[in-house]
Design goal:
Blueprint (H helix, E strand, L loop, with lengths): L11 H35 L1 H33 L4 H11 L5 H29 L12 E4 L16 H7 L4 E3 L8 H19 L4 E6 L1 H12 L6 E7 L7 H9 L2 H18 L6 H6 L3 H11 L10 E7 L11 H12 L16 E5 L25 H14 L3
Parallel strand pairs: 1-2, 1-3, 3-4, 4-5, 5-6
Helix pairs in contact: 1-2, 1-4, 3-4, 6-7, 7-11
């Protein structure tokens, strides 16, 4: 198991601090409101000068106490909350000195952090309740395969809080550890070697694969073309462009050669610094186009996954509006919609289906579910969609199937 990849969720001690911090901010908010009402009443009755002359010792003490409560609370939630995010933290800092506005910002911070604390407490209780059931303890371990332009970093997990949640419920999790930008064929070779390594070193026999985005194309190619089918029990692709991305095709065809070369060189240079030995931006993007994916589809279509005892499933989702996704998906959503129809910010709905089963997720809430949401990229608790619990159900189903 790749123990070095770590992404601690909001649990235990940190959750207690968050809860206390949120409580202190509520206490501050309410006490300031009450004290202000009492002060205004005294000023109306006795006048401004007389009120402050007679009450200044009490007012001084109250100001000090309120300041201590506020700063203790705000430091606690700022240092422990996941859901506040960078944006709301910055707004809090910038607007904290603007009268009236700062009250609305504080109310928002209280709302977000109390909701987060409540949600995470429920999840802790749920995991404690089912701990002995080990509902994700599958027969074969889970191999999680990342998509393009990301790596399996030590301190930032591509899959967010999902792996930790799976492990809490009995799963044994490995990672692909392949390069972030390469052609499908080259990525497939890396993944085939990785699967052989896991099976040989652990004696597990086979692996269950969950692959996101381009990772689904990579693993599909590895299994069908590189002789490792007997070492794979299942493949689940998540928001994979099996039929390609029309918008990627459009961009590659329309962009000037000089511009493409400049972008590719910049990406490749950055990716080398992040650990890729031989990154190839153009090859990776080309394999995501509609024509590129058709070649991959045709190359793998003749392979009988079911005949080799491999269970296959595909999953897709869609955003409902540009605001449903974080940058850059909020920028690409409308453009992709023009060419691919309903989409997750990068991949159109028609491109998702593949395998024995297909699940399409459409959040009933306004939020929608983006390409990044499906891997918990932003660690966001999305109204109407609990991504961690979704993957718990997916892996529990593998266990129920004897995989």
């Amino acid at each position: 198991m790749n123990e070095s990849i770590n992404n601690k969720p909001l649990t235990g001690y940190r959750l207690k601090i968050l809860s206390i911090g949120a409580f202190l901010l509520i206490l501050f908010f309410l006490s300031v409101a009450v004290c202000s009402a009492v002060l205004i009443k005294k000023i109306v009755e006795n006048g401004f000068a007389d009120t402050f002359k007679s009450e200044w010792p009490l007012l001084t003490a109250l100001i000090i106490i309120e300041a201590l409560i506020f700063w203790a609370g705000i430091i606690m939630v700022y240092t422990t909350s996941v859901q506040l995010g960078v944006k709301l933290r910055l707004i809090g800092v910038l607007c904290g000195w603007i009268p009236i506005v700062h009250l609305f910002v504080l109310f928002k911070i209280i709302k977000v952090t109390t909701a987060e604390a409540h949600f995470e407490k429920k999840k802790l209780k749920l995991n404690e309740k089912r701990k002995l059931q080990q509902i994700c303890k599958t027969r074969y371990p889970i191999l999680m395969v990342h998509g393009v332009f990301f790596r399996d970093f030590k301190y930032f997990n591509y899959w967010g809080r999902i792996p930790d949640e799976l492990e809490k419920n009995g799963a044994r999790v490995f990672y692909g550890n392949h390069q972030s930008a390469a052609s499908v064929v080259n990525s497939a070779k890396e993944l085939a070697a990785r699967i052989n390594e896991i099976v040989d070193s652990t004696g597990c026999g086979r692996v269950n694969i969950i692959a996101h985005s381009k990772g689904g194309l990579d693993i599909k190619t590895a299994v069908s073309c590189l002789g490792i089918a007997d070492k794979v029990a299942s493949i689940i692709t998540v928001n994979t462009p099996h039929r390609g991305c029309e918008f990627a095709e459009y961009l590659l065809n329309k962009a000037p050669a000089g511009f493409k070369e400049k972008v590719a060189n910049s990406y490749n240079s950055a990716l080398r610094k992040l650990g890729d030995t031989n990154p190839d931006f153009i090859a990776a993007v080309t394999d995501l186009t509609a024509s590129g994916c058709k070649k991959i589809w045709d190359m793998t279509a003749g392979f009988d996954f079911k005949g080799h005892g491999i269970y296959t499933k595909s999953i897709g989702s869609c955003m409902k509006q540009a605001g449903s996704g974080a940058f850059p998906l909020n920028m690409s959503y409308m453009f992709v919609k023009l060419l691919d129809g309903r989409n997750d910010g990068l991949v159109g709905e028609k491109s998702f289906p593949w395998g024995d089963e297909y699940i399409f997720l459409e959040n009933k809430k306004k939020r929608g579910i983006s390409h990044g949401d499906m891997i918990d990229l932003n660690r966001e608790n999305i109204p109407g969609f609990d991504v961690r619990e979704f993957f718990i159900d997916i892996v529990a189903d593998l266990k129920n199937k004897g995989l």
